[in-house]
Amino acid sequence: MGRALRVAHRPRCSERWSLALHQTEESRVLSRLVYLLGSHCSMFLSAVEETEKCAQGGKVRYMSQSKHTEARELMCSGALLFFSHGQQNSAADLSMLVLESLEKAEVEVADELLENLAKLFSLMDPNSPERVAFVSRALKWSSGGSGKLGHPRLHQLLALTLWKEQNYCESRYHFLHSADGEGCAHMLVEYSTSRGFRSEVDMFVAQAVLQFLCLKNKSSASVVFTTYTQKHPSIENGPPFVQPLLNFIWFLLLAVDGRAPLCSCFRGKLTVFTVLCEQYQPSLRRDPMYNEYLDRIGQLFFGVPPKQTSSYGGLLGKAGAGAPAGREQSGHGHVHPGLSPGPCRAWLWRSVGPVSLAALEVHL
């Protein structure tokens, strides 16, 4: 009777996982471990759901939370076991169950949990659709219902993993939503030296600084600029710099902090910003997105009223009228939220596509 009862509790999914393994001596042992793991997870989750249905007091809720934790730790260990044996699909299934446990138990965000999720992410096949679903759901949970696009620490961990995989575009996106300006700078140096032209070294960091400022992250914008210009082998010591665009970014950061000449009063800051944008238009025309980012920065830090016209309106509308038209979009017409076109290389533009400031502002 006892054996029949235990069999009745065994989940069908564990049978599917066991059959998926190759029938070698090692895999048969693993199959047994996985079978027991699936059975325990199923029983834990069933008990948790039943407990939650009849929960009446704090003691019962505590017991429910404890069962969630035990089940989650068991599933996480099982996922790592699957990954170590190359069972990607089964490992991904268990990883999603870990997230489901976090969501159902309404667990508060903690560094240890974020690191566990990042570890599971790093072991997934970079080209698998399960990885995309996992990271999207993990970021949503880590936001804690705040409406932001994920916890900065999780973004940082994801960015570091993608950097190791040399997926620089995706890594750059996650660095933008983290607080790791120094790590972003080192990644951009590697990105520039391995994939960019020497004439574009200034554009890699300029785009990142402008987007950090659009996200109201002044400290990371300053750190990424200082670190990048100090570490890049093709940039001579400055300021001032040989590249005019780097001088513009340097002056812009001083103006944002109110440390540029004439910035002692609010009107002085606006004057400095206006003159900078006018004087450096030849450099700003190198990328059609610069003026749009600067319109947003003007609104955030210099009191420029919101633009009333489309595309290049506002303070820089007239100045930007002579800028080149936008580069061609990717063949699929897909735009990655928050990613910028970066340096004006044709291959890079086609692979990422143009991104409007509106796409970036959804995360503000």
UniProtKB/TrEMBL annotation:
Q: Where is the signal peptide?
A: none
* GO CC term (a single one): BAT3 complex
The yes or no answer to whether the keyword Transport is present is: yes
| Cited Gene3D superfamilies | Tetratricopeptide repeat domain
* One BP annotation, GO: protein insertion into ER membrane
Pfam families per the UniProt record, alphabetical: GET4
Alphabetized UniProt keyword annotations: Cytoplasm, Transport
Q: Which domain of life is it from?
A: Eukaryota
UniProt KW Phosphoprotein keyword: no
- Tell me where in or outside the cell this protein is found: Cytoplasm, Cytosol
Coiled coil spans = none
Q: What is its main location?
A: cytoplasm
Query: Which family would the database say this protein is a member of?
Result: Belongs to the GET4 family.
Oligomer status and interactors: Component of the BAG6/BAT3 complex, at least composed of BAG6, UBL4A and GET4/TRC35. Interacts with BAG6; the interaction is direct and localizes BAG6 to the cytosol. Interacts with GET3.
Q: What is this protein called?
A: Golgi to ER traffic protein 4 homolog isoform X3
Q: Which gene encodes it?
A: GET4
